[in-house]
Amino acid sequence: MKKWWQEAVLYEIYCKSFFDSNGDGIGDLPGVLEKLPVLKELGIGCIWFTPIYCSPQVDNGYDVSDYRSIDPAYGTMDDFKRVLDAAHSMGIRIVMDQVLNHSSDEHFWFRESRKSKDNPYRNYYIWQPPKADGSEPNNWGSYFREGRGSAWEFDAATGEYYLHQYSVKMPDLNWEYPPLRKEIYEMLRFWADMGVDGFRLDIFTRLKKPEGFPDTQKQPDVLLDRNGFIVDKKMCTNVPGIHEIIHEMHKEVFGPCDVFTVGEGAGVNSENAPGFIGKEREELDTVYHFELAGRSKPVMRAEDFRRVQKAWYEVQKKDGWETQHFSNHDSARQVSNYGAEGKYRIASARLLAVLLLTTPGTPILYQGEEIGMVNVSYDHIEDYNDRYTVGDYRSMVEKGADPKETLAVLAPKSRDNARTPYQWDASPNAGFTKGTPWLRVNPCYPEINLKKDMEDPSGIFRGYQELIRIRAEHPVIPDGEIVFHLEDDPRIIAYTRKNEAESLLVLANLSGEEAPLQLPRELCEKNWKLLFSGRPECGGDLNAKHTLAPWESEVFLCTD
Ligand code: GLC
Ligand code: CA
Questions:
Q1: How far is the CA of 95 from the centre of ligand 2 (A)?
Q2: Closest by Cα among 237, 310, 325, 312 to 270
Q3: 470-491 burial by CB neighbour count: b if 16+ within 10 A, else e?
Q4: What are the tens digits of pLDDT across the range 161-170?
Q5: How far is the CA of 99 from the centre of ligand 1 (A)?
Q6: Residue 166 CA: which ligand 1 atom is closest?
Q7: How far is CA 310 from the centre of its chain?
Q8: What is the pLDDT of residues 522-554, one digit of tens each?
Q9: Distance between CA atoms of 105 and 85, rounded to whole angstroms?
Q10: Beta strand pairing status for 198-201 and 260-264?
Q11: 202 in ligand 1 pocket by Cβ < 6 Å?
Q12: Mean pLDDT for the chain?
C-alpha cells in the first residue's frame, strides 16, 4: 500500500504571485480558493504553500513574525480554513512551509530576546560577545550579504552580536535551547490539529551550528564576499547533531500527528539522504535535492540526468522515497534553464513534463510550469526584489564591476524569474490583479497565459494534465524500476520503467536539433503502444522511428 504522498503530485503555490482577489496587487487566499477548480482539473493531489504567516516580507514570508497566524495581506485564518476545507473536499491535501532556522526580528521572541541578557527569551536566539577588539565573533558571511557582509549583527542594547545566516532581519533560532524546541513543537501541533496534512521544512539541514562558532578556513570569493566575511555553506550545514534534532521533531510531532514531511535538502545528496529519509531513522518522509536542478544549475545535460536519477533511484529502492522537481520559487524558470524559449517553448515544456511525471518518486510542480512561464529581465536593479540578486549586485558593483554587465550576469539566475505574477489571461496584468502588482508582470503574458494555453489540446497545460492522469493509472511510475538506454548519447534520454505487470518506455531529445535514434534490438522487438507524445505532430510508430525531432518526447506502454 502506498502512502497518499507517494501517489499525489505536489503543486507549490507562491501565494503572493498566484491570484489577487481584492485588487491590492498581492495574491491571496480567497484568490487561491477561486482558482482551486483549475488545480483540480490539472489533477494535482497536494498543495504546498510557501509561508503565508504574518511577516514583514523581507524575504517574502520566510521571515515569520507570528508562526500561528495568517498575514492579513493574504487574508484571515478563516480564509485559510475555507481553502483547507475546499481543498480537502476536492481530495487535495495541504502542506505548510515551516521556517524553523530563523524568525523575523519582529517576532515577539526576538523583540524580547534583544532586551536584556537575562530576558526569558534571550536564549531563543544565538548571541555571542564581540572579540576583544569589538569585532564580529567570527568570519562567517551572510547569504544575503547585507550591511558589511557578516552573518553577525551587533546589538547595542546588550553589547552582543546575534547570528543571522540570511538577512539581518532574520535572526537564527537557537535549537540548543529546550524551551525553544518545545515552543516550536507546540506550534507544529497547532497546524496539524487544524487539519493540515504535512510540512515542508525550510533549510532543515542548517538548524544545528558548530560548537564554538569557529572561523571558516574557506578562501573568500573575490567577487562576492565582503570585508573578509566568507559565505561558507558547509559551516552550518549537516553539522553533527542535526539528526537528533530532526528525530526529536519526528518523535514529538510528525509521528504522533501522522503528517507528511518533505525537507528542503540543501546539502542533501544521494549519499547522505538515507540518514534523513531512511524508514528506520524516523526523521523525514522525503526531501527535495539540488543535484540536478536549482538556482546554481543553469543547465541540465542528458548525462547529469541519468547519473542523478540512477543514484536517487538506488536510495528509493533501498530505503527512502525520492522526489522530482526542475524549478521552484528559488530558481529561474525551468523552460528558460533546461528547455527552450521561442519556437520550441511548448515542445520543451512538454518534454520537461514527461521527465518530471514519468520518473520515480513524488513530482513537485511549481506554479506556472504547467503553462511554460519563462524568465523575465528588468533594466534596473530597483525592479528586483530577490535578496540574493540585490546583495550580489551590491557586492559586485562595490568591487568595481560594471553595473549593466553585472545585472546581465545576475538576471538569468534571479529568483524573481519564478516569482512574477501568474499569467492567467491576456487582460491587463495578465489577469493577476486589478491593481498594481507587487512585482512586475512578465511582459510576455499576451502570448503566454493559462487561458490561451488551455485552449490548445496539445498545449502545456493539457500535457501536464494528461501525464498526471497517466501517472495515476500506471503504478509502475512512482516506484517501478528505472533502466537507462543509449547511455552514451549526449542528447537523448531513454529509459524504461518496469514492474511485473507493465513497462513504459520514455524517449526525450534534450536539444533543439534532430537526433538520430537507434534503440537496442530487445526493445524494438516488444510491442509498444504510444501513450503520450510531447510533439503529437511527430509521434507515432516506434519501429518506424529513426530520429527524434528537436525537443521531442514520447511515452510508450507495453503489457506483453
Ligand atoms: C529557503 C527558501 C528561500 C529562503 C531561504 C531562507 O531556501 O526556500 O526562499 O530565502 O530558505 O529562509
Ligand atoms: Ca490581494
A1: 21
A2: 312
A3: bbbebebbbbbebebbbeebeb
A4: 999 999 999 9
A5: 8
A6: 6
A7: 21
A8: 998 899 999 999 999 997 788 888 999 999 999
A9: 33
A10: parallel
A11: yes
A12: 97
